[in-house]
């Protein structure tokens, strides 16, 4: 063999060696990439699952264990239907058909079942798995728990419905107030002042019934207590930081559906007391006593140290009286008044169920 032939042979050997080294490096790189990808899949918070075209589970990461409750040993080799509720089994053939057609399924929201039988709302993203020749051999699924998001959306919908209902009711009540006030007001100034006071009372009552922003009370009617409502209504009549009024007896919850009516009723009492009664003079006092007697709630509104009796008795039926009649009829409340030399006692008899239902 000539020197040139030896040189050529050595060159070919070196070239082959470099090719082998390149192949080894590529294989190592591929191995490292595969290992890196496997680590990402395993550490993902989302459930990442693969299955064959026949629906048999082939891989199952830690996220799937946390989400569905099955370990990898329990899940791999079993059909994916172990996590599908009976009423959702028809989804699987449809999904497999789309995968076999080469389609990808994005953000498919559905319900799946955990090992303990509980149901969870999830969002699925499903992609075909292909071999080295491009043939579809299975499917990968990424499942994300959207239960909290669904609950948040449901709470928001309830809040919006409740807001719509309340706005309609407030407009209806406001319309009634304007109609009644227009019949009795002597001047536009009287009408404006009366409307402003009553609308402010409505506003305060409405604010007390607002559910929290996180929706905790959205699933039921918001409540407040009778004493909280009365304190809110009577707050403007404090003087120098001291109450001219006192609440005693049994404090009870008032359903959110009844708060507006009770707020308007007690606002009328307070307004009359401020114009003609105990709250209209410096030394006047107001005591409100509440007692639960079986299925009846008795409330006594007692004014004392007020103006003389003659100044208290109304000479005509005005807006407040008409409003009181409407509210008392809607609530089923009996109202009686006793006129005394230096004050007024208003006794209310309220069915207990009306207050809390």
Characterise this structure.
By secondary structure, this protein is α+β, with helices and mostly antiparallel strands. The chain folds into three domains: 1-43; 46-145, 2-Layer Sandwich (Beta-Lactamase); 150-356, Heat Shock Protein 90, CATH 3.30.565.10. The protein is built from eleven helices and twelve strands. It has helices at residues 3-43, 62-68, 72-75, 91-100, 147-184, 188-208, 226-234, 256-275, 309-312, 319-331, 352-356, and strands spanning 47-52, 57-60, 105-113, 119-130, 136-145, 223-225, 245-249, 253-255, 285-293, 296-304, 334-340, 343-351. The strands form three sheets. The chain has a five-stranded antiparallel sheet, with helices on both faces. A hairpin with a 2-residue loop joins strand 9 (285-293) and strand 10 (296-304). Helix 5 runs antiparallel to helix 6, helix 6 (188-208) crosses helix 8 (256-275) and helix 7 (226-234) runs parallel beside helix 8 (256-275). The longest helix has 41 residues, at 3-43. It is elongated, with a radius of gyration of 38 Å. The model is unreliable at 211-221 (pLDDT under 50).
